[in-house]
Amino acid sequence: MMYNTKSQWLLILSIAFLLICTTLEAQKSRVPAERNRTDRETRQTEQRVESSQRIMDKLWFGGSVNLFWVNQRSFSQFLFGIAPMVGYKVTDNLSFGPRVEIQYTSYKIQTGVSGSETLNNFNFGGFGFGRYKFFRKFFIHVETGITTQPFIRTNSVGNPEFVRELRQPVLAGLGYSEGGGEIYILYDFNDPQRSTRFPIQYRFGFNYNF
């Protein structure tokens, strides 16, 4: 009987020892697993941040002011426009991106010996552009898109009026950029003959990270 009791206690102690050892080993293995998971999540977060930084390094932001004025004997025209834009650098010199535009046009036309009439109009457009920078400060700018543009016609009672039409400009030209500022001149190769605008545009603007 005494032998059986000792055997039982020995068995119980052995089982308890094995359970304690198993628990300790499980805890030891859990700590490296949690540490590995934390390290993996940290690396993934760092990779996402680096990827976002690389994308931002390739983006540049800008905007332009389009200003035009002409004064002739029978009419005068004033045009003012603003246009924000974002470019993506394919290389250090070549970039592409979107551009949106809002323009205001005021047109004054002579209607008689001493009379005149003033017409005002707002127009909107969306464009895609490409730029190639050369000699560090000069660039070639090409652009096309869809915009509304007014032209003047005579209505049924003989008075001039604005008519807005949808058209697709095709612009190309040269520019100069320094210190975050830029100026460029473009020619519209798709300007209709009845357009109230001169086919040459002068733009003054700014850029960041260009």
Q: What would you say this structure looks like, in words?
A:
It is a single chain. This protein has 210 residues and is of the alpha+beta class. The chain has one domain (59-208): Porin, CATH 2.40.160.20. It has one helix spanning 2-58, and strands at residues 59-71, 75-89, 94-110, 116-134, 138-154, 160-167, 170-178, 181-188, 200-208. An eight-stranded antiparallel barrel has the order 1-2-3-4-5-7-8-9. The longest helix is centred in the N-terminal third of the chain and has 57 residues, at 2-58. The termini are far apart. The relative contact order is 0.13. The mean pLDDT is 79.
Task: Summarize the helices and strands and which ones pair or pack.
Blueprint: H1 2-58, E1 59-71, E2 75-89, E3 94-110, E4 116-134, E5 138-154, E6 160-167, E7 170-178, E8 181-188, E9 200-208
Antiparallel strand pairs: 1-2, 1-9, 2-3, 3-4, 4-5, 5-6, 5-7, 7-8, 8-9
Kindly report the average pLDDT value. 79
Going across the biggest sheet, name each strand in turn: 1-2-3-4-5-7-8-9
Q: Based on DSSP secondary structure assignment, what is the total number of beta strands?
A: 9
What global shape is seen? elongated
Number of domain units: 1
CATH topology: Porin
Concise account of the structure shown:
By secondary structure, this protein is α+β, with helices and mostly antiparallel strands. The chain has one helix at 2-58, and strands at 59-71, 75-89, 94-110, 116-134, 138-154, 160-167, 170-178, 181-188, 200-208.
